[in-house]
Design goal:
Growth Hormone, Chain: A; 16 helices; 0% strand
């Protein structure tokens, strides 16, 4: 909830503060940059430090950042560099999400129910992706950015209290006795041993570089092309979440393991097609309808990404492999810079058109290189390679 609430409100607030498409996109870049920079490290740490401890620590850290920024904005001393630093620090907490929280879910339900669990997890994400932007638009228009930060701190504090009841992980390792470089090499070797994992990671890179960067330009297009304010902007963000929620519920209820790879690939193509149509739309109701359909593609990608990675990975390797996934997700900051530069030169609609077409071509290439993504297969864990 906090992730979507703060990011949409920040996009609107920063564009009002700076009037710059590039600086607005840069905020999104800084939020995701820690994934690219520290993803491998967070995966390694998650395999050798109790995940419950990491989960609680990351929540304490992010709660403190939101509270501190609320005070900065409240007293009227906010500058762009402060927002940039706080956004980057919040991104460090976000970088621990994949290698910490999702493996905890997989350990709780067992390998035979990972797909259903990830479907339910994706449903909660899409529900908050719907509600968060809507509230973000309402709050930034009514109580201001300081109120958004304080609400974020309160929600993360509640998450911290809930997480106190999380059981300790059953996977244990003594970090003092582990050779860091050897473990990292083992993680990369494991990833290379599975074509399904490689294909899943390739689609992840393409979607984060060419797909998700579009969200940094939604506030700009809402104001300059569609002529709407903060609350209508919140509806734009929320409607994609509504489509994602319905899509995630459908996947959790009816998807079978044999369809997981196809849902992942074709859902990703649907998402980028939605981005392309959104870039071409100049009528607000049409844009709302397009983003609703785009949400189904988002749900297919988000649900199956974690499902495929967890099902194709042995339990003792999940932290490191999910760390590699975090690095691939970390291609998002480069994509945000890409679309930000294009938007500053050509305008936001043309920039989104370009990245959507580039991304669709990249996904078609991935489908050719990794035909496993087009086949009806049941993902199974690859064996752990012998250390060399």
């Amino acid at each position: 909830m906090v992730r979507w609430l703060e990011m949409l409100a920040l996009g609107f607030f920063v564009f009002q503060l700076t009037g710059s498409e590039f600086l607005t996109a840069l905020v999104f870049t800084l939020r995701m940059a820690p994934m690219l920079l520290f993803g491998i490290a967070t995966g390694f740490i998650a395999d050798h430090v109790p995940r419950r401890f990491l989960l609680l620590g990351s929540l304490v850290f992010s709660t403190a950042i939101s509270g501190a920024m609320g005070l900065v904005v409240l007293f009227g001393h906010v500058e762009y560099w402060q927002i940039a630093v706080a956004t980057f620090l919040s991104g460090i907490s976000w970088a621990f999400d994949m290698p910490v929280r999702r493996p905890l879910v997989a350990e709780a339900v067992g390998p035979e129910r990972v797909g259903v669990a990830m479907g339910i997890e994706s449903t909660t994400m899409q529900a908050t992706r719907m509600l968060g932007p809507l509230l973000g638009g309402v709050f930034v228009a009514t109580i201001g950015m300081d109120g958004v930060y304080f609400i974020g701190a309160g929600l993360q504090g509640a998450a911290l209290l809930i997480s106190l009841g999380v059981a300790r992980s059953g996977i244990k390792s003594d970090i003092a006795s582990v050779r860091v470089l050897a473990n990292l090499r083992e993680g990369f070797r494991y990833v290379r041993s599975s074509r399904l994992i490689l294909g899943t990671l390739a689609v992840t890179v393409f979607m984060n570089f060419w797909g998700f960067a579009y969200s940094s330009q939604i506030p700009v297009i809402a104001k300059t092309e569609l002529g709407v304010g903060a609350i209508a902007l919140g509806v734009l963000g929320a409607i994609e979440g509504l489509g994602g929620l319905l899509g995630a519920l459908g996947i959790a209820a009816w998807a079978s393991p044999r369809t997981y790879t196809r849902i992942y690939l074709y859902g990703s193509i649907l998402f980028l097609t939605g981005v392309l149509l959104f870039a071409l739309s100049r009528w607000y109701p049409v844009s709302v309808a397009i983003l609703f359909a785009t949400g189904f593609g988002m749900a297919a990608f988000g649900t199956m990404q974690s499902t495929l990675m967890l099902m194709a990975t042995a339990p003792e390797m999940r932290g490191r492999v999910m760390g590699v996934l975090v690095v691939c997700i970390g291609s998002g900051p480069l994509g945000a810079l890409h679309v930000g530069l294009l938007a500053s030169l050509l305008g936001s609609p043309i920039a989104l058109t370009v990245i959507a077409l580039e991304g669709i071509v990249a996904l078609i290439i991935a489908a050719i290189v990794w035909p496993e993504l087009r086949r009806a297969v049941i993902p199974t864990a690859a064996p752990v390679p012998n250390p060399r």
